[in-house]
Amino acid sequence: MALTRRPSMAFSRRQLIDDIWGRTGSATSTSSMFVAHLRRKLGGDPETGRYITTVRGVGYRMGQG
Question: CB burial class (10 A; 0-12, 13-18, 19+) of residue 48?
Answer without folding.
Answer: exposed
